[in-house]
Amino acid sequence: MRNLTFGLVLAVSLAVVTGCGGGSSSARSLEDFTPTPQAPDFKSISGDVQGLAGVLTLGWENRTQVLTGGAFTIPLAFDSGTDFVLSIINEPLSQTCTIDSQTSFSGQSNDVVGVMISCITQNVIRVSVENFVTGIAMAGVDVTATWTDQGNPQSLAGVSDAQGRWTFEVPTFDGRIVINADPVGFGEQSKIVVNTAIPAGRTARMLMQPMSLGTTFDATFEINLVVGDTLLTVPANALVDAGGNLYGGTVTTELTTVDPSVEVEVMPGDYTSRDAGGVTSPIQSYGALSVTFTGANGEVLDLDVGQVATINIPVAAAELLTAPAATPMFYYDSANGYWIEEGQAIRTLLASGLLVYAGQVSHFTTWNADEAYVPVFINGCVVNSSGAPYPNVRVNATGATYLGSSLAITDSNGLFAVPVRPFSDVLITVGDALQSGTIQASSGGVDSTVAPCLVASGGSSTINLTWGANPSDLDTRFFGFSSLDSDDDFTVNFTQTSVLVNNISVDLDVDDVSGFGPEIVTVPDFPFQGVYRYAVHLFSGTGDIQSSPARVELNLRGDLTLFTPPPGAPTRCWAVFDMAIDPSANVLVTPINTWEAEDYCTTGNFPNPVN
């Protein structure tokens, strides 16, 4: 019986083995049970953009795509079966763009077609509030805008959002809009927007300087406010409230020195003065001082009638060797956005060795040691990337041999005439969230013309390097490394200020060798997919990059990022940032912010990893 059972089991086992063995048509291997990987099934997005003046950025999932006007198709946009939402990430300053078709997609298995985007042009003012020292956006700051339209005073108030921005709309009219902000712990700031009857987007960038001194004192005693040396002396029992009542309690003060040597736009206003007859003149600065006083209950305090305070305005670092023996003083009228001349200041060397302009003031605001001048005009033109005239665009002129700035608006033919100081060097570029190259020009005693035209685009980018008096010469080092063709690799620096790659010219527009900068790189577009690297090299002079201090501002298609030197022992080479460009022209900025050996600045140290 046991033998029979064993025989049956053996027969069944042999049958199974035979059935699974080689040669049989029913034979199956392990590979038959392994699923075959499916290739990704990518789908496209297509549609049309109407009314766009510039470029916008369309976003979905973790991707973005820069679009120009007209029909578009984005291949390989998403994998079949994906959930996503289309949105406008960025739009031209002067426009509001909306998606008028379906925006939300669930399990989308087909190409997305018929995306309709429309853009409307209007007068939009975009205010940004940021800490000048750190570049960090300041949220929750009270901002006001005032203007006069057809003789009627108008005003708006708002609060900066999490990105430090406040956006508002105004009617179309030709006039000035004054933007003011004065947050606790910072000096007052004010910027002027030139509004026009033709719709145009404008910007106001509020660079807030942290106060140099914050303290309290008893108003019944004389007080010396000291930052390195005495900058302000207030007599005893000299302060009153807004109603003219003598104040005898605790006073809180915020004092801020304003040195426009590195960045002229830290100065409130637009370097324009106005006299009692309403005549305006451009001014240049030798330094400024801002001070505010508040009482225990937050009341604003000022000097009583007949009282004066002694003020010592530190001479701007860029003017230490050229500042005149005496100069007029101007105070800033934040209500109207003009500098008003009042009093005289004498160049004085204090016991500490601090060089100041000493004078007396009868009220408190921002006081500027200034000089007005009769301007000459530099004429030029602005075109778009297609070469057509670009009307209603702001053009900025910044003094290279004086501390001041001015602006003009292009006419219907894209022409401008910007006022500048005679017999001076100036830097000319476009503004209002547009980027262009920078023209270096020299003015004479009469009007002049510069060429070629500035090419303005919302899709271009700039990199701006500034620093202090020492070291005298910091150098820009900008590298491009193509992931497709190493023959396209390039370097831009003072030895090669312009390169042409794939019909795109990348230029070092300004190369400064005498302190302060700027050095400006203009990138109209990124010529290839790959990595772009930026570094700063100490070429000559005393001091170091860190203590100078150096600042690098990346304006990437209108988005601003500030880089400042890292802590630690500085070398002669500061690795600042990388930008990676993918096949869809999306840009990923990676801060590096390390001190490196000099070969990093001379070769780019690529493709070696950054430590």
Concise structural overview:
By secondary structure, the chain is mostly beta strands. Helices cover 4% and strands 51% of the residues.
Characterise the protein shown here.
The chain is mainly beta. The chain has 4 domains: 42-121, Immunoglobulin-like, CATH 2.60.40; 213-372, Chondroitinase Ac, Chain A, domain 3 (Sandwich); 375-454, Immunoglobulin-like; 459-611, Sandwich (Lipoxygenase-1). It has 2 helices and 48 strands. Strands 17, 18, 19, 20, 21, 22, 23, 24, 25, 26, 27, 28 and 29 form a 13-stranded antiparallel β-sheet that branches. The protein has a 6-stranded antiparallel β-sheet with strand order 41-42-43-38-45-46, with no helix packed on it. It has a 5-stranded antiparallel β-sheet with strand order 40-39-44-47-48. A hairpin with an 8-residue loop joins strand 42 (504-510) and strand 43. 38% of the residues are buried. Residues 1-28 have low confidence and may be disordered.
Count of helical segments? 2
Radius of gyration: 31 Å
Mean pLDDT: 91
The CATH topology annotation of the largest domain reads as Chondroitinase Ac, Chain A, domain 3
Q: In whole angstroms, how far apart are the ends?
A: 80 Å
* Count of folded domains: 4
Roughly what percent helix?
A: under 10%
| Shape estimate | globular
